[in-house]
Amino acid sequence: MQQSPLLRFKPFTYRPFALLRFAMPLVFAAVLVFFSLTAPAFLTPGNLSSLLLNNFVLLAIVAIGMTFTVAAGGIDLSVGTALDFSSLAFIALLNAGHGTVVAIGGAMAAGLSAGACNALLIGGLQLTPFLATLGTLFIGTSVQQLLSSGGQPIYLSSGLHLGIATSRLAGIPLPLLIVATLALLYGGILARGRFGRSLVAVGEQPSVAYYSGISARRVSAYTYLASALAAAVAGIVLSSTVSAYVPLSGNAFLLNAIGAVFIGTTLGRTGRPNLPGTLLGVLFLNVVSNGLLLVGWNFYWQQVATGGLIFAILAFSFVSRRPD
């Protein structure tokens, strides 16, 4: 018997938390309007250019790699170590008289050494990602202190000039092209690649992944190598920007990279890490930091305000996913 159209009609359901799914875009828009009105220099071309090239690029590169580890159900506390190792090797090789290509290759290898350590500890010895990457962080910190005479910066020799940070291709700054290339590569793998599907399965349903024949050890090893690879690229860009290696400078990107990844998860209904969301999270954090600086807030109050906004966005996102 055919059901009456009236019986098939689905009544309107009031969902008080539906708008909270748009918490991140709404807060971002409100922040942009607020700083546009309170900081006259905020929308000037010079400030926007500095925000993108000096702040956004490095954090975005580190956060791209961090997205992989969070999607796999882990965390990488050693991204700063991989960045610093890469920066140190890059400057040291250039000062030793080697060419840029050799210096880049050595820097990538040095950064990947931190990822290889994590891969061995997590994929081989099956330590938890938190403990393994924390151990790599501690070891990396000590190694840097030993190699830099107790934490002294190493400057690029006079007469050597690096054009990575200032070069342009088709009118687009090279650092932004590097971010775009990494985002497309990592984002494509995570969203559509076979490895990306395995990575997400290990992170979200490890038991199902196991019975599907997916090797969690192998996936974890490749994931942390990929995270270290991105951090190594950031180390090269940082060195070319400041023409020096500054010990332990990579640790400054750790917490913001984690925050950007989790902010990015609010853009989807599943709460899954994704590259577009991560990049928007990076941009949001940099806009807030830049705007608060322009309005004259103390650095420590900037951290408090940024942390409060992150907490509010994540809380709203969590509430919006609850069944009404």
Quick tags:
single chain, 2% strand, 13 helices, mainly alpha, two-stranded antiparallel ribbon, two-stranded antiparallel sheet
What would a concise description of this structure say?
The chain has 324 residues and is an all-alpha fold. The protein is 69% helix and 2% strand.
Structural summary, described in words:
The protein has 324 residues and is mainly alpha-helical. The chain has one domain (20-31, 43-320): ABC transporter involved in vitamin B12 uptake, BtuC, CATH 1.10.3470. It is 69% helix and 2% strand. The protein is built from 13 helices and four strands. The chain has a two-stranded antiparallel ribbon with strand order 1-4. A hairpin with a 2-residue loop joins strand 2 and strand 3 (172-173). Helix 3 (45-71) crosses helix 11 (254-264) and helix 3 packs across helix 12. The longest helix has 27 residues, at 45-71. The radius of gyration is 22 Å and the shape is globular. The relative contact order is 0.19. Residues 9-14 have low confidence and may be disordered.
